Amino acid sequence: MSTDRFAIRRSKLLRSLRRHRVDGLLVTNSTNVTYLTGFTGGDSFLLVGQKRAILISDGRFAVQIGEECPDLEVEIRPSLETIVEATARVAKSLKLTRLGFESNSTTVQQFESLQQQIKSLETVSVAAAVENLRAIKDAEEVTEIRQAVIQAQRGFDVLRASLTGDMTELESAHLLEHAMRRFGALRASFEPIVAVGSRAALPHCRPSEHRLCEASLVLIDWGASNGRGYKSDLTRVLATGKISTKLSKIYRVVLRAQLQAIEAIRPGVRGCDVDAVARSIIEEAGYGKNFGHGLGHGIGLDIHEMPRLSPAGDSELKAGMVVTVEPGIYLPGWGGVRIEDDVLVTRNGCEVLSSVPKNLQDIVLG
To answer: What is the DSSP letter of 12?
Structure first.
């Protein structure tokens, strides 16, 4: 990735900070540091000023920083100096007077320590400034997400071809993650969810020793994190036995809700309005109380990013955003159905990035 791209991001950040009337921002969220610099290590802060941006780190990462962001100004703190002490020293050298800080990631201890170190420096809470920039992906980021989607889909193909009734949820999850790594993924985006039968009624079910043969359906929620850390997030339900009338009915409702919600995605539409499309279909079918989460969320360097597709999602969608669309119906004691794809908002509408088959006839294990 071009180092100019990171400089452009920092310039956009500075412009967005004008309304806060600060002359710098202390970035403490490690994902935001990566987004603004290209540095993928940890335990480092970024101080972004009007004329200079300085990465504050330690000797463990000196070589890595040189390789990943050679044009970035770096302050390698001595081993006896804390990162907050180093940050205070750098802030003094920049002669900052009004410093913004990421109030959604800076700890209370770090904040109080910084104030003690620089009593003359006015600190201003600035939340989600970088996250707002990250919500809109550039072309290179979309390419990275496409790769993560492909890695996830290929891993799922291997899993589906390998599933047997005596496999446990946990064994299936491990096989899926291993398969994604074989196709180039750095790791899974999150711990894969494999939920058999009634356990599929738990939206965030943790894989266990339950075997696939214990019920006639299994819900699988998974994603890949590619080499640069960009994520994908998908969900499918597979029928391990004959499709029952109940499964057929619920599956069709969820699929219709998802397809119509995807059709509603375009620039200018609010996240809550897209959510309402899917939610109204599920409510009309009599399952409104069984859809207890938002329709979707942004993905990128984090598995959950802005924007939100939920009843509370008031922000408008913009071209370049990538969101999940994942309606679900969950019936305690029976199971659940969730269908999830990754969707890119385009200038004229949207593009579904994932292509795992999801028609009812596609879910039966052959």
So the answer is: H
Q: How far is the C-alpha of 276 from the C-alpha of 263, rounded, in Å?
A: 13
Q: Which domain holds residue 107?
A: 3-133
CB atoms under 10 Å from CB of 362, counted, come to 11
Closest alpha carbon to 328 in 341, 316, 317, 315: 341
Residue 267 CA neighbour count, 13 Å, CB half = 8
Mean pLDDT of 28-48: 97
| Phi, psi torsion values for 122, nearest 5 degrees | -80, 130
How many Å apart are CA 53 and CA 59, to the nearest integer? 19
Q: 82 and 63, same structural domain? A: yes
> What is the 8-class DSSP label of residue 191?
P
- Read off the DSSP letter of residue 50: S
Count of domains for the chain: 2
Same domain, 120 and 168: no
pLDDT in tens, 136-164: 999 999 999 999 999 999 999 999 999 99
Is there a single domain that holds both residue 84 and residue 151? no
